[in-house]
Known about the structure:
Helices cover 34% and strands 15% of the residues. It is of the alpha/beta class and 591 residues long.
Amino acid sequence: MKLSDYVMNFLYKKNIRHIFGFQGGSVTHLIDSIHKIDELAYIQNYHEQASSFCADAYARASGNVGVAVATSGPGATNLITGIANAFFDSVPCLFITGQVSVHAMKTNPAVRQQGFQETDIVSIVQPVTKFAKTLLEPENIRYDLEKAFYLAQTGRPGPVLIDLPHNVQASEINSQTLKSFTDSDEYILERKKHREPDCDTVKRIVAMLAEAARPVILAGGGMASVRGRGIFETVVHACDLPVVCSLRGLDAIDHDDSHFCGFIGSYGNRYANFAVAKSDLLLVLGSRLDERQTGDDRTMFARGAKIVHVDIDPHELNHNLSEAVSVLCDIESFLKKLMMETGGKTFDHRGWLDQIRRWKAKYPSYPALADVQEIDPNEFMHVLSGKVSGSSVVCADVGQNMMWVAQSFGLNGHKQLLCSAGHGAMGYSLPAGIGAYFASPERRVICITGDGGVQMNVQELQTVSREKLPLKIFIMNNQSLGMIRTFHEKYFNRRCFGSARGYTNPDFEKLAYAFDILYTKIRSREDFNRIDHALEDERPHLVEVMLSPETQVVPEPAPRRPVEDQLPLLDRKEFDRLLDMEDIALKDEKI
Length: 591
């Protein structure tokens, strides 16, 4: 059996049905093998970075591993941004790179390059992969594929890479004699790393929840492991707990749920940050508590709260904050054990939830607008979310558009949000939409991007057009790199070099027609009804939303202040009164 055929049959048996990539001399055997399996499809992009983002989104939307293939040298290095993205956001992906034939590979490390397009991709990506290896011995293919697949999905998920020399791909192997990783001592050792939550520790946490007057759950990216299984909602309702979310955790709970209390962090909803600031117990589920969540001075974050942190990664526990209780295990195991320990006990935090709702009513994410026709981007996100079906996948790009989505897009009815959170890679949204569509073609896919972000992978409009994908692409056009422009305006005396000055856009209407994609322009609030037409059509559709060049994300971080004290600053007396819990009558909670 040809080794490249074995690789593709392996992936097919793992329920992979789509592989993304870009053709090249060192992957010809691999891509040819894809086409030998009727139910395995090869989707060619127009840049390998896009292929890596497609694989990332495919994994998130399908719950399986995403796969991308790229040739040696520049093809492999073009994957790196997407590999890093999957690593920082804990997404299980398998990247397969071609390599020059073994006889053409350099043997002297001092030699820069020996074979044409030879690059040591393994050494380059080792810091951002869970496993990376150049396979030199064909008889190890089963072992290394099984190991890579296992590591990508277990513990804290992440990307793996297998580098296959061209002659190795063409090798003939006996599939019956290949050794298996799952039969090895290494596999047994890996399995032993799995940790179950300690019963006594969970009992202690239940007791802390019972004693707390103002508990809050912070749902992080780790919640992706239990998304859609119902167990998180069961815990939240049984314990009557308010839930705030990080960017990666925003789709952990239905936004119509009365316990959902917003998006936290530097650009978070004020009311969500108030809830964390005044909490006396913060239960953190799968969040790394990075600076965008806690603010620059972490000692000011949730300073009145005992912090209970649950995470699968031991390096994230007690890393950024001092924790009262740290639990090393996966989120699902913890939630199941928590439910067992609470049993039939009841919790009542209605008074605390009502207070957060009063904050939400007083400080909404967009103002009530009357006769103003200029588009408020937060209002637009709210309106758009109400028109999008409940099972949709929403792919947000990086920049102001991502923050508007996080602040105001209602993720109700099992909507899923995909974004580049940790790596913050512009250009993610469009290829992510492609990957999400192939993972779940029955779901509506919405791509929300900025005029800057869309140009990072604008060539993928041809993939959308070629494959006739019914993506709905919303370009929030403020004619600038808005997040950086705002930074320049505030801290560089409005010297907006590269963010507004020296930055231009193409005519997106002409661009859409060049790619044979339908186009709609929304110039004012009066045009919001045009959204319906774009969503109803089953063809690709690009919607350009015209914004003021002065758009900002509000609220935003205030330097040297706690994360809940955001710009524009509230009146000092008002701010102090808001966070003075002595004025808040809370019902006593009892178990």
